[in-house]
Structures are given as C-alpha cells and as structure tokens.
Amino acid sequence: DNDNDNDNDELEGTSEKERENDGMSLKEIIETSCKKIDLGAAVLPKPLFEDENYSAVLKKEFNAIVVEHHLKWTPLCYQQPGPLPDQSPSDRLGRYDFYHADTIVDWAIQNGITVKGHVLAWHVTTPEDLLLHNNNNNNTDNNTDQQCTITSQQLQQQLKRHIFTLMGHFRGRIKTWDVVNEALAPDGTLAKNIFYKIIGPDYIEKAFHWAHQADPTATLLYNDNKVEGIGTPKSEAFYKLLQTFKLNNVPVHGCGIQAHFNAAGTGLSRPPTPRMVKAQIRRLGQLGLVVNISEMDVRVSKLPLSDQLKALAQKQIYRDILIAALTEPAFDGLWLWGFTDKHTWVSDFYYQDQPLIFDQQYNKKDAYYGIREALKTMAIDGVVGGGVPLFSDIDSDGNPWGHLWMQEEPPSPPTPTPTADNETTSMAVEGGGSGIGSGDDRPDWEQADT
Asked: Are 367 and 357 in contact, with CB atoms under 8 Å apart?
C-alpha cells in the first residue's frame, strides 16, 4: 500500500549517519528544553555497582531514578533479612534492611539524580505471612480469609508504621512517593486485596493521610496500570477515584500511569493512541494533579511481524505517546521500567522480549531515538506535537495510528446459553473476549489478557 509511505517518515529506522552523529544525550536535550521533566529509569543494585556500562549510561542519559525492587515492603523486611543473617527469610515483623536501598539512593544523590520512592502500599509485595502471623514459609495458599489472624486495627497500625518508617528514613532524600499502587481491578472496581478485605475500601485514603503526616513536604502519587488512555472501564475508574479524592481533600498530589505496553495486545491490552493518552492526562491535570508515565516498557515479541516492523512499532509507541504527553502542562516525567534489555523484569514475569531502549550490549535502539525525537519537540526549533495526531486516531494520510503493526481484534466468543441445570452469564469484554472478575487483585502478569 503506497499510502503508507508518508506515515511517520521519522519512524523508518535510524540511519547509520544519525547514530554516528549522536549529538546530545536525552538528559542534555531536556536541559535545553522549554519543558523540564524527569526522565527516569528503574534501577537494580547489583548491575549498578558491578557493571560500569550500566551506571555510565544511567548518569549520561537520565536525570532521575526509581528503585525497582528494594523499597517495597517484602524486600525490605522479609526477603532481605537484615542484620541477622542466620535467618532467611526474616520472620520478624518490623525488622528492616535499608542497605540496598540506601546505596542506590545515596549514589543517585551524589550524582545529582532525583529519586522517586516506590512504593508504600502494594498488596502484591506486602509480607502477608508476617502480617497474618503465619510464618510457615512453605505455605503458598493465598486465601487470606482462611489465614487471617489480624484485625483491622492491627493492620492499620502496621501499615501506618511501615509508611512512617520508610518515609522517615528517606525524608529529605526522597521527596516524591508512590503511596498506593494498583488498587483497581481490570473492570474498574477496587481490587479485593488484603488491605481492602481487612481494613476496608478507605485504606487508600488512610494511606495518603498517613503519608502526608509522615512528610508534609512530600509529593504523593497514586499509581496504576492500563489507565493510560481514556475509554476503558479501568481508566474511567482511575479518573473518578482521583476526582473523589480531590473532592474529599485527600492529600494526593499526582498520579502515575504505568505504560507497560504490549504492541501485539488486543482488547484491554491494546496500546492506547496518542489522542487517548493526551485526553487522560489533560483531565487529570484539570483536577489539579501532576501526571507522570511511571513504568514504561514496550513488549514486541508477540507481534507476528518482521524484526524491522517490530522495531518500528516499539519506536512509534515510545515516541508518539511521549510526544502526546509532553503537550499537556500537567505532565512532568517519563520513567522507564529499566533501560537495557539486559536487565528487564519482563523476561522474569512474562516471556523473553526486548522492551527497552538499549539492547543487551547497551547499544541505542530505534526506540531510544524515538524518545529523543519526542524530547526535541519541546526543545529549540522543535515543533510541539511533532506531527502526531493528537485529537484524532487518524493521521493526515487517512490511516489509523499504528496501522503498520497494530493487531486486529479477535472475534468475541459467543455468549454462553443458560441451561436449566447451570445458568451462566457472559463475562466477555468487548473488543478482547477476555473474562475478568470484579475485584480481581492479581498482578497484571498473572491475568490472561496481558
């Protein structure tokens, strides 16, 4: 189709000439831009201190980091056993090991790099065995209703104590925190996690109030996935939840939209268009919130396409989504969940993929240049919007955004027919055919439609 020839010419891969004349780093482009944002990456301690290339790229390209794993509750108190090495994992609630987190945070500060705190309350990385007074480490039963020996008051006390401990330890060093993470189920209802079941749905508001008490100067964020663009049940619920918090004077100052994208996704996992992302950021900004893209990576291995088209898809998603976000005043940062394919959570939690902007040898991929092109739209001689369709999903040539790689929706399964013995109802989701249940608290990688 010759009509495709003019579709985002900049996305036709990166020429050798461009790679040779590399110019400024991403961080340097931001410094010359009319819009200063955080450009961050999730960081792990082992490669940071044992791989010179890892730390060198971080210092050159990024002005911010987030600790990928070692600020979460379970790693701090349970998996990393603290000062008593004879017991692993720890069986003592309240014993913290800040060694790994401190080394990362102090390294960042010494190098003039901002740190975002992640995360104070996330049910997936909460040490349920300790909280529920069940210390049998071989017990993999997740049915908290059967295990539960903790009251609402006791769990509130432990959560508040954890928030005060973590924020107090890093007060002055970490000034922005993800307070609550992934409290919404895919259908937009509140996830029925340990906090919801034992404390109740107001645990989210309580966590923000406690965080504000712990550090009244900190910027407090709510973070969630599959909420990046308008038009899905979860993205609508995300907006309404934050709208309610603002109306109720909950001390929430901003939010993170994660952006763990699957280029081959359909249904609820279909990547949103730039228009959808811009509209979501705009209305969140109108609530008085700052908005960041908090955990971006772009999986491409499931695309049934050539390597060239996979690279184009990845570059276009990184580039166009960031361009759209940059046009909104409320947008203040892009955070990648890692930066090199050598160290990506995707390979451990999903499947082998190459979702980031540097390859395993720290070479810049086309996706890197996509981010560079996006940042340049806000720099000297840049064009805001970069020619990306921001108010329509159709480009100037009449093609749908992403038409070169976006996958067609599969046909929805037929609605089950009720029988006299077993009446059933369809839980099919329009556009994806994927069943989701109300209150589903499983992490994204455990859900079928990813």
From this structure: yes
DSSP labels, 74-86:
HIIIIIS-TT-TT
Q: CA-based angle 6:9:10, to the nearest 5?
A: 165
C-alpha separations of 218 from 63, 171, 211, 215, 381 in Å? 19, 8, 8, 6, 35
Identified catalytic residue from 128, 228, 295, 328: 295
- Number of helical (H) and strand (E) elements in the chain, helices listed first: 16, 9
Task: Report pLDDT digits (tens) over 315-337.
Answer: 999 999 999 999 999 999 999 99
Q: Where are the alpha helices (DSSP H) in 124-232?
A: 128-131, 144-147, 152-169, 194-198, 203-214
Give the other-Cβ count within 10 Å of 394's Cβ: 13
Here the tokens at position 364 are: 């810049």
Q: Is 295 a catalytic residue?
A: yes
Nearest residue to 229 via CA among 449, 26, 401: 401
pTM value is 0.86
Choosing from 68, 128, 182, 328, the catalytic residue is: 182
